[in-house]
Amino acid sequence: MQIGIDKIGFYTPHLYVDMEKLALARNEDPGKFLIGIGQEKMAVAPVTQDAVTLAANAALEILTDEDKEKIDFVIFGTESGVDHSKAAAIYVHRLLGLKPEVRAVEVKEACFGATAGLQMARGHIALHPESKVLVLGSDISRYGLNTSGEVTQGAGAVAMVVSAHPKILAIEEPSVYHTEDIMDFWRPVYSDSAYVDGKFSNEKYISFFQNVWKQYREKTGFTLSDFKAICFHMPYTKMGLKALRTVLDETDEDGRERLLAHYETSKSYNKIVGNIYTGALYLSLLSLLEQNTNIEAGARIGLYSYGSGAVGEFFSGILQPGYRKALQPARHQQMLEARKEISVAEYEAIFTTSLPNDGSAVTLPVNEDPATVCLAGIEGHKRQYVNKNNRVGG
Ligand code: HMG
Predict the structure, then answer these.
(1) pTM given for the model
(2) Structural domains for the chain
(3) Any atom of ligand 1 within 6 Å of the Cβ of 236
(4) Which positions in this protein are listed as binding (3S)-3-hydroxy-3-methylglutaryl-CoA (predicted)?
């Protein structure tokens, strides 16, 4: 039985900052942000979007009634959780109108959470082939104004339906992984922004990639020529390229050209959205699948997942016949083009606006946010969500 990704949805907020303007405001050469880091635009989440709403908006665009009938497991990967106790998956479960006979949990390991969810989903489908699993990766990446990580912020979510007989990508065995207790990036419970040892995180991302790629090669006997393309966790679009370059001499000129050309395609959405942490690898996969013109069904795609702290995993999948029909490039293009540019000052004002943390109530301007699912406020210590399609609130 083949198990894998049947559908992929994506959502990013309607606001962005131009990275050339951010560079100038930070007294940096724009070349550093645009080329050295590889980011052109950065998505900014208004106060009416959080990890829950981003994920619900991403899932809304893909779920049919049949999916809703079959989904019996919702796995929400995030490092931007809204509650220390209750799983974000439960809010999404209600906002999407899923049936009650569902397991709903939140998974955390930095940017690795959605990959953990995908692999858990595969195990679940192996035991229950008729069911479907909704895997979510949703985050708002925050380092702080005027920090070196600021250029790598972003916001967005990816939603995947995982099933038997998937329409997009059948995940293969084996999958290889590696864990080490390191402090390259972390966010203590008292902080709403991440702490990072930037250079160390880059080194570890690359060394974990080399570790899992070596394990994978030894287990499978595959070489780079067995892959049409490799997608990487993309904290910023230069990062995966740095890792890829360290192994390119294992293949010939044609192989290098192919992998580098597809890498370019795989960063199409990420370079204008920014780091979306758990969803970043799958946004890169979506970029590749929706924007390529020459990858046929049957092609093997490699996936490298990295979550700081740290866990790395390398696995692969085979593109399924007719996979293009299961994608929505026009819809995503339209969503990205309809976004509104805000100035650096407007972005700074949004960044420094926070929800009350003393238990007081607040009502938020959901009419200023075109998203279907929004955070409408806080009342009695409870987040109030609204789905404008059916005005299910509370
Ligand atoms: P920095 O020190 O400001 O940047 O921080 P830099 O001085 O290293 O410059 C960056 C690149 O720009 C360099 O290229 C420069 O040469 C180039 P490189 O040597 O790296 O190829 N450059 C220019 N290029 C063209 N024209 C110019 C120019 N000037 C300079 N004029 C850093 C960069 C990424 C460290 C920082 O932004 C940061 O700390 N970011 C956050 C951490 C991060 O993204 N780490 C990635 C690996 S860890 C990970 O992926 C996990 C994560 O997603 C979290 C999770 O798992 O939850 C982050």
Answers:
(1) 0.98
(2) 3-166+328-393 (3.40.47.10), 170-324 (3.40.47.10)
(3) yes
(4) 29, 143, 242, 275
